[in-house]
């Protein structure tokens, strides 16, 4: 019993440290201050993004005047990286040919490849995943199918290699985890075997994986996971992909529910409802499309109030599509009551996450209000220099 207790305490401490590292990273702590901020956050017992940001500000104020800021670090050599994302406006309608606005989040999924000795192994230690991909497609299960499709296309399915994945993007939160995972899994062997893939080819392979995982994806998640830049997207052959200029950085608080959202299910449900009543649903998609295009103008004009109103209306239409949940609605209400200019779900819905657009003076209030309800948050600042 004593050994079990000791082991449990050690595991819990390890989980706390891992969570704290993610929180400090999300707070934007630079490399030269990271360990100091991490230590102070752990000592405080408040493993929250707002606390990490508070500590970071304190450390910066107390830092010696001659302390130099470390240059931005380039991606680690040989590490495949896929970016997480939020959809600012336009989810679900984008599946049916309308526009959407997407932005990356400060969370990634990374993957590395090593030579192996027993076929193709996919390891995700944090998720307790260990897949064998060197098998016929009909015998693959779960994400083996999506990852295996990538390896098949790259002609690597019969090699002996180990792909190890390190995810920061949480699963099934509407933050593009599956697309980020696909991009990381494409890029890692590309780097290891020097295949010379272009970003366009990486994106196409990630889209193939998304098709295997979700059936009929719009393509926006894998595009954001590949390029990691704010963009306006519309499905097509080829799709419309325009980088979005954000002259004044936005302040967005992401609130994560305690329920996973299954994108494939919600997309299928909306598509089935559209099949039963095409005129009604096409009108809803058109209305969402109009909101997205107005939002582009609001962003260009740095008009947070109008952008927030457009997000609130978009949420009403997503509710009409029946992809929201009581838990999402609760967080949205909490955010609005705390001063958010606008709040809505992000991604597929049915669980997952919501986003709240804030002014400079309300960001901390909104973040703390959500965390007081027992939910995790993440601060995203599209348009800020990374």
Tell me briefly what this model is.
The chain is an alpha+beta fold and 386 residues long. It is 47% helix and 19% strand.
Describe, in plain words, how this protein is organized in 3D.
- By secondary structure, the chain is an alpha+beta fold.
- The chain contains twelve helices and eleven strands.
- It has helices at residues 2-26, 31-44, 49-62, 143-154, 177-192, 199-214, 220-227, 263-276, 278-300, 304-320, 326-337, 363-372; strands spanning 80-89, 99-115, 120-124, 129-132, 161-167, 231-234, 240-243, 251-256, 342-346, 353-358, 376-380.
- The strands form two sheets. Strands 1, 2, 3, 4, 5, 6 and 7 form a seven-stranded mixed beta sheet that branches. A four-stranded antiparallel beta sheet has the order 9-10-8-11.
- A hairpin with a 5-residue loop joins strand 6 (231-234) and strand 7.
- Helix 5 (177-192) packs across helix 7 (220-227), helix 6 (199-214) runs antiparallel to helix 7 and helix 8 crosses helix 9 (278-300).
- It is globular, with a radius of gyration of 21 Å.
- The chain starts with a helix and ends in a 6-residue tail after the last strand.
Number of strands: 11
Mean pLDDT metric:
86
Unreliable runs: 1-15, 65-75
Order of helices and strands: HHHEEEEHEHHHEEEHHHHEEHE
Shape: globular
Strand content: 15-25%
What oligomeric state best describes the polypeptide chains here?
single chain
Helix-strand category: alpha+beta
| Rounded Rg | 21 Å
Q: Give the end-to-end Cα distance, rounded to a whole number of Å.
A: 48 Å
How many helices? The count is: 12
Helix content: 40-55%
Largest sheet: 7 strands, mixed
């Amino acid at each position: 019993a004593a050994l079990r207790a000791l082991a449990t305490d050690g595991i819990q401490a390890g989980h706390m440290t891992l969570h704290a590292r993610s929180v400090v990273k999300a707070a934007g702590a630079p490399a030269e201050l990271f360990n100091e901020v991490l230590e102070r956050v752990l000592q405080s017992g408040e493993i929250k993004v707002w606390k990490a940001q508070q500590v970071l500000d304190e450390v910066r104020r107390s830092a010696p005047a001659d302390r130099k800021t470390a240059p931005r670090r380039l991606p680690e050599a040989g590490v495949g990286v896929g970016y997480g994302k939020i959809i600012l406006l336009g989810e679900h309608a984008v599946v049916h040919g309308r526009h959407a606005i997407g932005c990356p989040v400060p969370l990634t999924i990374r993957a590395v490849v090593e030579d192996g000795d027993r076929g193709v192994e996919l390891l995700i230690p944090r998720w307790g995943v260990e897949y064998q991909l060197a098998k016929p497609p009909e015998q693959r299960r779960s994400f083996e199918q999506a990852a295996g499709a990538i390896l098949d296309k790259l002609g690597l399915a019969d090699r002996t290699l180990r792909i190890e994945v390190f995810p920061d993007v949480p699963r099934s939160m509407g933050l593009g985890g599956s697309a980020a995972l696909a991009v990381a899994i494409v890029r890692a062997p590309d780097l290891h075997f020097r295949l010379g893939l272009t970003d366009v080819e990486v994106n196409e392979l990630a889209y193939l994986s998304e098709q295997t995982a979700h059936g009929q994806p719009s393509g926006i998640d894998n595009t954001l996971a590949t390029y990691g830049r704010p963009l306006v997207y519309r499905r097509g052959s080829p799709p419309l992909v325009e980088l979005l200029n954000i002259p004044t950085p936005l302040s967005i608080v992401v609130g994560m529910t305690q329920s996973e959202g299954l994108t494939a299910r919600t997309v299928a449900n909306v598509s089935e409802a559209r099949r039963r009543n095409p005129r009604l649903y096409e009108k809803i998609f058109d209305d969402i499309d109009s909101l997205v295009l107005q939002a582009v103008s609001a962003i260009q004009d740095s008009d947070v109030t109008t952008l927030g109103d457009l997000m609130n209306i978009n949420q009403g239409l997503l509710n009409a599509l029946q992809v929201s949940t009581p838990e999402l609605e609760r967080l949205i209400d909490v955010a609005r009551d705390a001063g958010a200019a606008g709040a809505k779900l992000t991604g597929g819905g049915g669980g997952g996450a919501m986003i709240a657009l804030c002014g400079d003076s309300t960001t901390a209030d909104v973040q703390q209000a959500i965390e007081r309800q027992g939910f995790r948050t993440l601060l995203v600042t599209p348009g800020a220099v990374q």
